[in-house]
Design a protein that fits this description.
Oligomer: single chain
Family: Belongs to the tRNA nucleotidyltransferase/poly(A) polymerase family.
GO cellular component, one term: mitochondrion
Helix content: 40-55%
Organism: Smithornis capensis
GO molecular function: metal ion binding; nucleotide binding; nucleotidyltransferase activity; tRNA binding
Keywords: Magnesium, Metal-binding, Nucleotide-binding, Nucleotidyltransferase, RNA-binding, Transferase, tRNA processing
CATH class of one domain: Alpha Beta
Largest sheet: 7 strands, mixed
Length: 405
């Protein structure tokens, strides 16, 4: 058996984890690291969060932790077998091994087991089905490590069975494909067939769950390939994407945008042809108001607001920002520049500080203009002069314009 000794693995052994490990050992319960954290450790990545699996039942864990005076937090996961203990400023999420008794494509009823192989069998992908003992021993029942090394994404056992247990796994397959594999187009035909045959099942999955996965796909690798595939395999219509998505525009935009760390909505908007596409996406996925507004902004401005001809290519964007009365317009303009693939202009725009208009109503009163209406008109006129000067004129220069008038 392989034993992992990587520094990322050694670094996990905080005082908290050592205490947890001791408790389990005293009671002869097995405790291992599970799922995604194992995949990360084997790839030489420090895992963001770590899930543990154990042969102990939730009742046994509660009893053990309570006896040791350990604090337990939120018991929401308990009916699925998850206990969260807090030790030394750290949370430990520990789940009893389980088998699915009934699944309806959305959630499963589970019963507990002490069989590690059976628990691995109900996980989605081989690369996510491994366990790691705290001594570094790898427990890998489905060749997940081989698949990880050869950068392959495969379902555990039969793809159609895994998908029917939870249809969201279709999107998880795409997400991990974009994360692990080297090149697009390297799928097992039987997997694609299983996805196509079960695509309709996604109609029953909540929009919120779909949007979480879809956003990760949009920011991963091979996104153009994966979204084209969603159309070919008849998935798009069930997850809120437009029936006649603009795949040419999508291919064009995704080519340059990945390196510019766009927001998911910026990538997705390139599929859209009009406002209805944003509305339908929102109806299906319940996107945030900010995401919706960004989509509508990009649709409206992607052709309208483009770089200036001549020595000041940034001017149109700067003018738009200066004229805007809305909050966070600058972040929308950054996303527009990413969408347009204007890497250099994006850098310049991010470094540009919005200048403050130097004249106030107070200055005009001092000059003897008293009526509010005249002050308003004069300020507007000076703003226009200031804009024409590229926001360079100072207070003196601006006020001298007024004197001429």
């Amino acid at each position: 058996a392989m034993r992992l000794q990587a520094p990322q693995f050694q670094a996990l052994f905080t005082p908290g984890l050592r205490s947890v490990a001791e408790l389990f050992e005293q009671k002869n319960h097995e405790l291992r690291i599970a799922g995604g954290a194992v995949r990360d450790l084997l790839s030489g990545v420090t895992p963001q969060d770590i899930d543990f699996a154990t042969t102990a039942t939730p009742a046994e864990m509660k009893e053990m932790f309570t006896a040791a005076g350990v604090r337990l937090i939120n018991n929401k996961g308990e009916k699925h077998g998850t206990i969260t203990a807090r030790l030394q400023e750290q949370n430990f999420e520990i789940t009893t091994l389980r088998i699915d008794v009934v699944t309806d494509g959305r959630h499963a009823e589970v019963e507990f087991t002490t069989d590690w192989h059976k628990d691995a069998e109900r996980r989605d992908l081989t690369v996510n089905s491994m366990f790691l003992g705290l001594d570094g021993t790898l427990y890998d029942f489905f060749n997940g490590y081989e698949d990880l090394k050869s950068k392959r994404v495969r379902f555990v056992g039969k793809a159609s069975e895994r998908i029917q247990e939870d249809y969201l796994r279709i999107l998880r397959y795409f997400r991990f494909y974009g994360r692990i594999t080297e090149k697009p187009g390297d799928h097992e035909p039987t997997t694609l067939q299983a996805i196509q045959e079960n695509a309709k099942g996604l109609a029953g999955i909540s929009g919120e769950r779909i949007w979480v996965e879809l956003k990760k796909i949009l920011l991963g690798n091979h996104v153009n390939h994966l979204v084209q595939l969603m159309y070919e395999l008849d998935i798009a219509q069930y997850i809120g994407l437009p029936l006649d998505g603009n795949l040419e525009e999508f291919a064009r935009v995704t080519k340059n945008i990945q390196k510019l760390s766009p927001k998911p909505m910026t990538v997705l908007t390139s599929l859209f042809r009009g406002k209805d596409d944003v509305t339908n996406l929102d109806l299906r996925l319940k996107i945030s108001k900010e995401e919706k507004n960004l989509g509508l902004f990009l649709l409206k401005q992607r052709q309208e607001l483009t770089k200036g001809v001549g020595p000041e290519p940034l001017r149109p964007y700067q003018d738009f920002l200066m004229d805007s009365r809305e909050a966070n317009t600058n972040s929308k303009i950054f996303e527009l520049l990413k969408y347009q693939g204007e890497e250099q202009l994006l850098k310049e725009m991010q470094e540009w500080t919005v200048p403050t208009f130097p004249v106030s109503g107070h200055d005009l009163r001092k000059m003897g203009i008293t009526s509010g209406k005249e002050i308003g008109a004069a300020l507007q006129q000076l703003r226009d002069e200031w804009k024409k000067s590229g926001y360079h004129m100072d207070k003196e220069e601006l006020l001298s314009c007024l004197k001429k008038v």
